[in-house]
């Protein structure tokens, strides 16, 4: 009997932490206008276009206390505070952020974040960068597109662009079979994979057990593969 009370109190304490951690909360955050966004924590982020910029975050009350959203010039930053807290051991729900933008030209995601755009991203120039086991799912219609995927990250890409430059490394992947690029410059290394539709001109370099799959019949200006790497050509109708 003397042992039962401390155990019961301990279990109640732990369960109380779990219950309080799982209580969901929604917050509306006012932000200044931005055209670039940087996410550096394991958040689920949904991007949508609107007339006014803003952010809505949802998650456990304790988890939301650690969320920092700030403007730095033309960049909107979503990150976690540097403080370490015991209660984070019990946080499994995560944070979801719905971000409304008026105009966007750059997305940078890291720290096991997951980002999805609800609308087509348009403009003359656009930059996509993911790292640290992050995922990005977007559709674009742009003139020039730069993509970088590293550290076991993935980019799912739909739409079209005039010129595309891709750097894929560290067991990462760019999945863009149905995407149409007029010309492309691809550098793929470190056991990574790129799938891309290209129509007119191609420069490609594959190294370190990597694979590049091209859907279409572009003119190859430069092509290099080394080691166990290869560059494969597929008919665009097989994508």
Please characterize this protein's 3D structure.
It is a single chain. With 239 residues, this protein is mainly beta. The protein has a 17-stranded mixed beta sheet that branches. The protein has two domains: 23-119, Pectate Lyase C-like, CATH 2.160.20.120; 120-239, 3 Solenoid (Pectate Lyase C-like), CATH 2.160.20.120. It is built from two helices and 17 strands.
In brief:
The protein is mainly beta and 239 residues long.
Summarize the helices and strands and which ones pair or pack.
Blueprint: H1 4-22, E1 24-29, E2 36-39, E3 44-49, E4 54-60, H2 61-64, E5 67-72, E6 75-80, E7 96-101, E8 106-109, E9 114-117, E10 121-130, E11 135-149, E12 154-168, E13 173-188, E14 193-206, E15 211-215, E16 219-225, E17 230-234
Parallel strand pairs: 2-6, 2-8, 3-7, 3-9, 8-10, 9-11, 10-11, 11-12, 12-13, 13-14, 14-15, 14-16, 15-17
Antiparallel strand pairs: 1-4, 4-7, 5-6
Find the count of extended strands (DSSP E, 2+ residues): 17
Described by strand count, sense and barrel closure, the largest sheet is: 17 strands, mixed
At the first level of CATH, the class of the largest domain is Mainly Beta
Distance between the termini: 68 Å
Coarse structural class: mainly beta
> In angstroms, what is the radius of gyration?
22 Å
Keywords:
239 residues; mainly beta; Pectate Lyase C-like; 17-stranded mixed sheet; disordered N terminus
């Amino acid at each position: 009997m003397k042992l039962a009370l401390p155990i019961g109190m301990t279990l109640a304490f732990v369960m109380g932490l779990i219950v309080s951690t799982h209580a969901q909360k929604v917050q509306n955050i006012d932000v200044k206008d931005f055209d670039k966004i940087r996410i550096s924590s394991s958040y689920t982020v949904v991007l949508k276009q609107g007339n006014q910029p803003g952010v809505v975050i949802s998650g456990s009350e304790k988890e939301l206390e650690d969320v920092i959203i700030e403007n730095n010039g033309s960049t909107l930053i979503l990150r976690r505070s540097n403080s370490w807290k015991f209660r984070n051991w019990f946080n499994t729900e995560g944070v979801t952020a719905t971000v409304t933008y008026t105009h966007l030209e750059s997305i940078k995601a890291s720290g096991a974040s997951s980002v999805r755009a609800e609308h087509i991203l348009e403009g003359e120039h656009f930059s996509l960068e993911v790292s640290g086991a992050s995922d990005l799912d977007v559709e674009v219609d742009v003139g020039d597109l730069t993509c970088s995927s590293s550290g076991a990250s993935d980019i799912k890409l739909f739409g079209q662009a005039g010129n595309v430059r891709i750097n894929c490394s560290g067991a990462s992947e760019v999945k863009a079979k149905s995407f149409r690029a007029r010309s492309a410059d691809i550098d793929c290394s470190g056991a990574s994979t790129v799938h891309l539709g290209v129509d007119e001109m191609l420069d490609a370099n594959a190294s370190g057990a990597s694979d590049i799959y091209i859907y279409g019949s572009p003119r190859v200006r430069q092509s290099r593969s080394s080691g166990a790497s290869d560059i494969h050509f597929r008919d665009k109708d097989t994508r």
